[in-house]
Every structure is written in structure tokens, then in C-alpha cells.
Design a protein that fits this description.
By secondary structure, this protein is of the alpha/beta class. The protein has one domain: Aldolase class I (TIM Barrel). It is 43% helix and 11% strand. The chain is built from 13 helices and 10 strands. Strand 3, helix 1 and strand 4 form a beta-alpha-beta unit. It starts with a strand and ends in a 14-residue tail after the last helix.
Length: 385
């Protein structure tokens, strides 16, 4: 049933239509896709485990693999190392129980902030890779703040990753996260120039003896992504992490090249994105465009600068859709976006068919508007999250 709501500053009521998507979709055949999942928090602090795991079951129901304990889950931005381990254990156990795909982040966040020896960084990575493998999950080798702070050259990156890959029992995904998502990772792979950084990544892949299954690229540069995916060896996938340009990158180009996807945006646009990918499997490009294109404006607003605050929009939509009982985030991050920003997200989510139950969504939006100030002082954006 459709619903209406009067939003502040809007002359006419907003119609919130009932989406026409199916209640679930099979995993896509033509693309490999993972949704990076967020963490539902309790209002007084801590993780709401029931809601957190229920959200992952929703992603699996729509055909996505789950990318666990990544930046979308506030890894290093509210999610502690201990919580990340428990999250990986719980989600991997549920994935095994249901027979679903999961890949989990292995990083170095047990190390304190600052400079460390390469030996210490390699050891931290190795411990986490072992843990993820023991949990039964595929490994995503995350970008490391400790390595970014400590490496003095591209060769340092190559040496660290070379040794980390020796620990991996199965091919891994590499996580290349740009500075927009985490300013502490500026200059990753030894250069702020993306082409020079790509040269280093390609040297690593070529020397990896098949240990790299794919690269998740999150630099918000579609042209660079196309260039890198052309240069990758056969059999190594390019997983787009471009939450601005994913629709065209996944759809593919006239030359037949395309990107697979590992996106935080999928946690916000789950149903329409799944419908689009299903249409793509059927060779229905018009159906793909009709379902996916309206989500792009929504995703671009969710990931608007400062981009690393995008998790707020993901959690807000999860609450509006009834996947968690409270609009709460770890470390109080729900306050990092203004009411005006979240009102815009609501409008675009309605237009994209990303609000599953219009009556519930309108009720919760009305609840939010009743308690939110019309303007809220924003936190200091100059600090690294």
C-alpha cells in the first residue's frame, strides 16, 4: 500500500510507492556481487546481534554474497578489533548454516595507531588471515592504516603483501580503498598517483602465483577502474567499489568488459539492485537500467562528502525498512549527518524503490522528524575518522 508524508520545506506531500520487486532473487550468474554489510547498534552502545545477523540474511535472500567486517561495518571507525572478530565468527557460522557466500576483512587494526615495523604489520595481517580462514570465510586483505603510515616505498607494500599471501590457503580479494573513504590511506601502494599505484598492484598480482582472485577498487574514478580492469591478468576479477558510477561499470562497455561488484551501496539499495542484476542475467538491458539507474542519485547522496560518513545513510535506511529497531550506530555515528541530508535520502529512496514497506517507512520517518532538530551542528570534518 502506498503512503504519503509531508516533509519539511516541501510544498506538496511525498508519495511513497510500494516497490514491485520480488521478495528475493537468486545469486546473479553474469556478475559476482558482494554487499558490504553494516552493523546494527543498541541505543546504549554495543552491537544488536539479532538485527545485525538478520540484515545479513536479507542480503543473502536477494542473492548477494556478504562482505563482512569491512569499512561499511565501521571497521576502525567505531567497530573494535574484538567486535570485528566476533562479527566474523557469528556471520561465518550463519553463512555456513545457510549455505551462503561470505568474505571477511583481514587487516591490521589490532595494532595501535602510528608507525610499526614491516615485520609487525606482516604478523598482524597473518594472524587475521588465519582467523578469517578458520572461521570458514573467504579472505579480503584490507588496506592497512599501519602499512600506509609505515611504508617508505612501493617495494615495502610488495614485500608485506607477498608474505601475507603465503599464509592464504585459498585465493583472496585485495581491498584498495581510496582516501575519500579513509584519509589515513592516502598514497596507498606507495603513490598518490593512481596509475603508479596500479603498476604496483599489478606487479603484486603477477607475482602472486594465483593467490589473488580479485581486487575491490574504491577510488571513485570510473576511468581509472576501466584502465585497471583491462590490465588485469585473465581470471582476476575487478570488483567495483565505486558507489557513484557502479551502474555503468557493472553494466559493462561495448568491448564486453565489465566490473563485478563489492559495494556498501548494495546494503542500501538491496532490492532494486538485485532486480537489476536479475534482469542482466536475462539479457534485459532495459530492465537493468530501469531498476538500477534510479538508485544512483540515492547512492551519490549517501556517499556525499565527507564520503566516510556514508554508513549513516545505510543504517538509516535499514531502520526505515525495519531491519533494526533503532536508528543507532556504534560510537554515536548516527549524528554525523544532518536531518536535511537524511530527508534527502528518504526522498531518493522512495523514488528508487528502496523503501520496502511504505507505511512502516513513513511511520519511522515521521518519528525521526518529530525528534530531530531542523538544523544540527556538524562535527569537525577535518579529523580522520
Amino acid at each position: 500500500m502506498n503512503a504519503q508524508i509531508v516533509l519539511p520545506g516541501r510544498a506538496a506531500p511525498l508519495d511513497v510507492p510500494t516497490p514491485a520487486w520480488a521478495a528475493g532473487y537468486p545469486p546473479p550468474v553474469r556478475r559476482s556481487v558482494y554487499a558490504a554489510a553494516h552493523v546494527a547498534a543498541c541505543p546504549g552502545g554495543g552491537i544488536d546481534w539479532d538485527a545485525t545477523l538478520r540484515f545479513r540474511e536479507e542480503l543473502w535472500r536477494y542473492g548477494f554474497g556478504v562482505a563482512e567486517a569491512m569499512d561499511t561495518a565501521q571497521r576502525g571507525m567505531g567497530l573494535t578489533f574484538g567486535q570485528a572478530r566476533e562479527l566474523i565468527s557469528r556471520s561465518s557460522a550463519r553463512a555456513a548454516e545457510l549455505g551462503m557466500r561470505i568474505a571477511s576483512g583481514a587487516g591490521t587494526d589490532q595494532l595501535t595507531a602510528g608507525v610499526h615495523s614491516l615485520t609487525a604489520i606482516i604478523g598482524a595481517y597473518a594472524d587475521q588471515v588465519d582467523f578469517v580462514q578458520a572461521a570458514g570465510s573467504q579472505v579480503i586483505v584490507m588496506a592497512s592504516r599501519a602499512l600506509a603510515a609505515s611504508a617508505r616505498s612501493a617495494d615495502d607494500y610488495l614485500e608485506v603483501y607477498r608474505q601475507v599471501l603465503t599464509v592464504a590457503r585459498q585465493p583472496v580479494l585485495l581491498h584498495w580503498l581510496g582516501a575519500a573513504f579513509d584519509p589515513a590511506l592516502r598514497g596507498y601502494w606507495g603513490s598518490e598517483d593512481l596509475e603508479a599505484a596500479a603498476d604496483t598492484v599489478l606487479r603484486l598480482v603477477e607475482r602472486a602465483d594465483g593467490k589473488v582472485a580479485g581486487i575491490k577498487l574504491s577510488v571513485l574514478d570510473a576511468s581509472h577502474e576501466r584502465t585497471l580492469r583491462r590490465r588485469l591478468p585473465s581470471g582476476v576479477r575487478l570488483y567495483t567499489g565505486d558507489d557513484y558510477n557502479y551502474a555503468e561499470l557493472i553494466r559493462g562497455d561495448a568491448d564486453g568488459r565489465y566490473s563485478d561488484a563489492l559495494l556498501g551501496a548494495f546494503a542500501a539499495i538491496t532490492a532494486p539492485a538485485a532486480a537489476a542484476l536479475h534482469a542482466l542475467d536475462l539479457g534485459d538491458l532495459a530492465g537493468y537500467d530501469a531498476a538500477m539507474e534510479p538508485t544512483v542519485a540515492l547512492s551519490r547522496l549517501i556517499f556525499a562528502e565527507p564520503t566516510y560518513d556514508y554508513k549513516v545513510g545505510v543504517a538509516f535506511l535499514a531502520w526505515l525498512n525495519g531491519f533494526q529497531p533503532h536508528f543507532a550506530m556504534l560510537a554515536g555515528w548516527q549524528d554525523r549527518r544532518s536531518p536535511e541530508h537524511l530527508i534527502g535520502i528518504f526522498e531518493l529512496a522512495a523514488a528508487a524503490g528502496a523503501l520496502h514497506d511504505p507505511q512502516l517507512a513513513v511511520g519511522r520517518m515521521s518519528e525521526y522528524l518529530a525528534s530531530a532538530p531542523r538544523s544540527r551542528a556538524q562535527p569537525d570534518r577535518r579529523r580522520v575518522p
